[in-house]
Specification:
mainly alpha, 189 residues, 3 domains
């Protein structure tokens, strides 16, 4: 093939109009002949196609390795659903145990209230004793609250200090007026 035919085939190749036979001719030309300088980039392209054709198929060992890796991964993932199911089973069992505990703790307390005293006077005196004890305990707690009221008294005194601070601010304003008066009198003299 002459150089002009090769350049025409390259033009068709760039426009994607070549047939497989024409591309085969281009590959043979660039593989076998001495290529001019302006076509050397095309030689690299077509020699790349030749190298790619040689590496087209992978070995059988590659397939075996991939298949063994996939089967090992399946074995590892098959353990996870069992564990997940086991955790779910334990969670359900724990919930049932909690429900039984609540039922036996609070569910059987449906007994009716009975009178413990046959004599109403005795019941009244016992109730009075209990209420007096509760009252004395609450009064002991109220004595602690007196300390809180003392704290409140201290806070009101602090509020009086804030009124003092307001008065001091007013005095500062008056002193500014005095300084202004002095400046005005010195300018007039």
């Amino acid at each position: 093939m002459n150089l002009q035919e090769i350049e025409e085939l390259i033009g068709k190749y760039e426009r994607a109009e070549t047939s497989l036979e024409e591309e085969k001719q281009l590959r043979t030309f660039f593989r076998e002949n001495e290529v001019p300088a302006h076509l050397r980039t095309y030689k690299e392209i077509f020699s790349g196609y030749d190298m790619q054709a040689e590496d087209k198929f992978l070995s059988q060992e590659f397939d075996k390795k991939i298949l063994t890796l996939i089967s090992e991964e399946k074995k590892e993932t098959s353990k996870l659903p069992f564990r997940r199911n086991l955790y779910t089973l334990f969670a359900i069992a724990a919930g049932i145990i909690i429900l039984f505990g609540i039922y036996f703790r609070f569910g059987n307390s449906r007994s009716t209230l009975k009178d413990t005293y046959d004599d109403p006077q005795l019941a009244y005196t016992e109730t009075r004793k209990v209420l007096l004890k509760v009252s004395s305990t609450m009064n002991a707690g109220l004595s602690e609250l007196n300390k809180v009221s003392e704290f409140n008294n201290g806070l009101t005194e602090l509020n009086n200090l804030s009124a003092f601070e307001t008065g001091m601010n007013n005095i500062k304003k008056i002193s500014i007026l005095d300084k202004t008066k002095e400046i005005l009198t010195t300018k007039n003299e």
